[in-house]
Amino acid sequence: MENYLQKVKLAKRGDVDAFAELYAEVYESMYRFALYTLRNTSDAEDAVSEAVADAFAAIKKLRAEEAFKGWIFRILSNKCKDKLREYTRKNEELKEELPEKQPETGVAERVLIRSSFFELADEERLIISMHQFAGYTSREIAEILHMNENTVRSKESRGLKKLARKLEDMKN
Questions:
Q1: Are 99 and 35 contacting, i.e. CB atoms less than 8 angstroms apart?
Q2: Is residue 64 predicted with pLDDT exceeding 70?
Q3: Which residue range(s) make up the domain with 153?
Q4: 7 and 92, same structural domain?
């Protein structure tokens, strides 16, 4: 932990190598979060790249070194929200793509889970992704999305129930 905080302090002073090491530690989680939120590999890569560029440009403004991971995920979350707004404006049909790493479940079950997840509303998918893939608490998600904490919990709960119902329906 001390080494981690030291890297953040160095990055705040402009050390590119320290920032690169920090980024390497969170890249996979960031990419997975963006991919499951946006459902498109190139958009996920773009969102992560934009978030990292913004984070590097603004790292000197980071107040607490221990908040680095949450801070960079907040930037990524905002980039994903911007992309989702673009999708809505463009009315595009999103292409579903598989992530490089799959959970250790059967192929049929992965397909069911994935297709059901992508049928959820954008906001439900974003909230579930933020909690399950990025590890945010309800309070943190509420702050990032400018919502009431109870609203976040109820939307996540409804989304998870929809997901469970869809999976049950598909299995039957």
A1: yes
A2: yes
A3: 103-172
A4: yes
